[in-house]
Design a protein that fits this description.
This protein is an alpha/beta fold. The chain contains twelve helices and 24 strands.
């Protein structure tokens, strides 16, 4: 296992051009594959998660090819033509969940698997919803978890307008997967959400991208969704925004260690909910300015502590947890139970790693309370094969301490050049 030594940092300042959004990239790839017509995707993320999606689409005979500064996806005009395939999807939830839903409604024979951690991430609520539509899906391991076998389904014994129910309190990706797949049906569909829907901004991304491909979903608050029948139609060209979750690390750095730090590729016009992370930084006392496609932050530790419900920005909340090391009192992150079923159990992992720097951490079922030390200690951090653990914990160097990162290459999941980008804005202590 490779390690990376990061030296103490005195100050940060500079500009970062962000890679494409993972959430937008994988949704756009799948929608373009299902659409009528070709789509040029400009600014698409190049990382492990999008590679997994592209490889899966290739096995389904969807052709993707470079086209200047873009990727051209030749749409299938409906369901993929390949009706039997075995797909390995790594640990990419944004590929596994939507492909499960799409293939379950295709009428083919498929096997879907991933890495060991993906087989620990629940998918039962999505499978239950798809079975309501007549899908035939078997678990090849533990009940409620991948890997899956999908078989040609039988028509469901239900009215065409009968609602499909899906739980919303475990992962918003279950609802996203259903919404993206349902236009493949011959008739309009209704989805009802059981329980509180978490991570609503990620569902909002789904709805806005579906609209770009010609499918206007009617939303009744966050309780019910009316989905018209397809087909999807290509918008011709779609520009992928910079990744707002990735922006959070650099913006937090600007708040902690001077700045100004500017990120380009995401700004006021963003459709990504994680841009709300700038509100956390403002509450901590940072100065934030923004344009249509850029954000700039400056500030200085110690920052103000916070007590916030971060259910709407679970990925960027990882950055908030590390920023809490630089507050002048205890901070509390609430309503982030979804961390338990991510690439690792992020609540337990974050508590373990922050304690290495001398913080007192109270681990709760759905949150953390973090009391920073008077002075950070140097530490060797484990990353749990979780890209966001690696990227967020690297910010501890802003406290003037050295940090050794175990398995830094896990950032290839979404941001292969992350450590080089971070190095470009830091002044060594």
């Amino acid at each position: 296992m490779r390690t990376l030594e990061l030296g103490p940092v005195k100050r940060v300042a500079g500009t970062i051009r962000l890679p494409g959004s993972k959430s937008i990239s994988n949704r756009a790839l799948l929608l373009a594959a299902l659409a009528r017509g070709d789509t040029r995707l400009v600014g698409l993320l190049e990382a492990d998660d999008t590679r997994v999606m592209r490889e899966a689409l290739a096995r389904l005979a969807v052709r993707c090819e470079p086209d200047g500064d873009a990727l051209r996806v030749h749409g299938a005009g409906g369901v993929p033509s390949v009706r039997e395939a075995t797909l390995f999807l790594g640990n990419a939830g944004t590929a596994f969940r939507p492909l499960t839903a799409v293939l379950a409604l295709t009428g083919g024979e498929y096997r879907l698997s991933g890495v060991a951690r993906m087989h620990e991430r629940p998918i039962g609520d999505l499978v239950d919803a798809l079975r309501q539509l007549g899908a035939r899906i078997d678990y090849l391991g533990a009940e409620g978890f991948p890997p899956l076998a999908i078989h040609p389904g039988a028509p469901a014994a239900r009215r065409a307008d009968a609602p499909v129910t899906v739980r919303g309190d475990v992962s918003s990706q279950f609802l996203t997967a259903l919404l993206m797949a349902l236009p493949m049906r011959a008739a309009p569909s209704v989805v009802e959400v059981a329980g509180e829907l978490i991570s609503k901004p990620y569902v909002e991304i789904t709805l806005k991208l579906m609209a770009r491909f010609g499918i206007q979903v009617q939303r009744d608050d966050w309780r019910a969704f009316r989905v018209p029948a397809g087909p999807y139609r290509s918008p011709g060209v779609l520009h992928v925004e910079g990744d707002a979750s990735s922006a959070s690390y650099f913006l937090a750095a600007g708040a902690i260690a001077g700045g100004p730090v500017r990120v380009e590729g995401v700004g006021r016009d963003s459709i990504q909910g994680d841009l709300a992370f700038i509100e956390v930084l403002e509450k901590m006392g940072a100065e934030v300015t923004a344009g249509p496609d850029w954000v700039e932050v400056r500030g200085q530790a110690p920052l103000a502590p916070f007590d916030l419900d971060l259910n709407h920005i679970p990925d960027a909340a990882m950055t908030a947890a590390v920023a809490a090391l630089f507050a002048r009192g205890p901070s509390t992150l609430r309503n982030i139970a979804s961390w338990r079923v991510k690439e690792t159990d992020r609540i337990a992992a974050m508590a373990t790693e922050l304690r290495k720097f001398g913080a007192q951490v109270d681990e709760r079922p759905d949150g953390l309370r973090i009391t920073p030390p008077d002075r950070l200690r140097p530490a060797t951090v484990d990353t749990y094969d979780d890209h966001r653990m690696a990227m967020s914990l690297a910010l501890a160097t802003l406290g003037g301490v050295a940090v050794r990162v175990n398995d830094p290459d896990c950032v290839a999941k979404t941001f292969p050049g992350y450590f080089d980008a971070l190095a470009s804005i830091v002044a060594p202590a």
